[in-house]
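User: Predict the complex.
Assistant: Input components as received:
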Amino acid sequence: MLENIMLGFLMQKEMSGYDLKQWMAECTSYFFDASFGSIYPALKRMEDKGYIVCRETVEGSKFKKLYSITEAGKSYFLGWLEKPITFTKSNHSYLVNIYFYNHLPIEKATANLKQFAEVLEQHMNEVNMQKEQTEKTYNTKNNFRYSTIICGIYYFQSIIDWCNDLIKHLE
Amino acid sequence: MLENIMLGFLMQKEMSGYDLKQWMAECTSYFFDASFGSIYPALKRMEDKGYIVCRETVEGSKFKKLYSITEAGKSYFLGWLEKPITFTKSNHSYLVNIYFYNHLPIEKATANLKQFAEVLEQHMNEVNMQKEQTEKTYNTKNNFRYSTIICGIYYFQSIIDWCNDLIKHLE
DNA sequence: CAGTCCATGTAAGAAGTTACATGATTCT
DNA sequence: AGAATCATGTAACTTCTTACATGGACTG
């Protein structure tokens, strides 16, 4: 999956490992993110496979390794993209806590849930900011990039609603 | 997190590794699951730490290793449980696909999304079955176990709604 | 001139899965 | 009798993160 998302970004333009990390942080971090410790080795692997090629640049005294996607890389990426989407269960570990909250005094449970709702609101705000940014930048709501952000809003809103319902029910 | 959920289940009663796996499969699999390859080593680790103790039983010719939680285990578990809930971003890799769907012919994108919506419906049905089962077993809607199932329903419903909206928008 | 950002990379370790190995029991 | 389920466990592997190591450029 990491290699796929990196190839996807390289479909736009040539980029460095650092650039790729920034794109993830800005655009996909709420549903996918990676550290440099996995990005750089992945670039090396993909170069070995022939999916990308490297071009070393020096601007002034700024050194950068810019990678671009090859034809082999494009066809691999497109081949992956057209396959059916696989739904992989992801660990929502916060639910593990709440699952066992019968072992907690009800006041403590409520307090923790309220705190959690606030954290969720913060994440929601982040996604909302991404939404506004995207609207400004592309001046359209008709693209898939925008749609994934909307999904994030649906997602966070549904958990926030659930969490608040639960808190109300406890009080 | 794996150790915590196992301790949580052992708060109910003594269980074998096999039992723990079944509980996860039946009750928490949509938000947390583990394989035997991680459960059995975890049991060993937790026994070493003194959080659980093992009792080997033979019923007829059926051999089982039943683990129960110790006082140390209980206090560790409760200590973890009362801490603030941490929200960890989880990888929703299906969104990585959709994020790049501008590279796909619109008909193909729509077809894949429709297929994906069906997969989501199946997962939704599973959670709904868990919900009905829990209602029957406990005859109440007032517990946290039940609430986590409701969260699953909220969650899947929100993605299904989003997915269907997106499909409609494309057509 | 200290702190932050830009930029690349490695090594160690965490946390898990898959596949294998074993063997009894229960169901059809 | 064969298949499925019960039951435990290990070894190899995957995949990722964290922490470290390095060094130049920009900013206040």
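Residues 2, 34-35, 37-38, 60-63 of chain A lie near DNA strand D (CB under 10 Å from a C1').
Let me know if you want any component modeled separately.
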